[in-house]
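Colleagues,

For the teaching module next term, I've prepared a clean inverse folding example: a structure given as tokens, and then the sequence designed for it. I'd like students to try predicting residues themselves before seeing the answer, so please don't circulate the second half yet.
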């Protein structure tokens, strides 16, 4: 806890970002998504990897497979099915 404590409570009030993390470090969730998109594991995400990942998300959200996302599908889309 020692190293993490900096800026979490005492000196708050910096005004930017409620995360308390360093500005340089992307949020953990973003890094996880990045890692998931990096299909070949080379540490970079190409445009095609990006598109494939989003197509997968789209298809997971498009429950009736009609190629469109309705507001209802969108609202239920939180967790893609495996
Ligand atoms: Ca890659």
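(Answer key — instructors only)
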């Amino acid at each position: 806890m020692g190293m993490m404590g900096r800026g979490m409570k005492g000196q708050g009030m910096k005004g930017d970002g409620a995360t308390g993390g360093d500005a340089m470090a992307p949020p953990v969730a973003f890094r996880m998504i990045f890692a998931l998109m990096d299909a070949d594991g080379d540490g970079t995400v190409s445009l095609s990897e990006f598109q494939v990942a989003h197509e997968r998300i789209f298809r997971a959200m498009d429950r009736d497979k009609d190629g469109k996302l309705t507001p209802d599908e969108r609202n239920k889309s939180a967790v893609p099915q495996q």
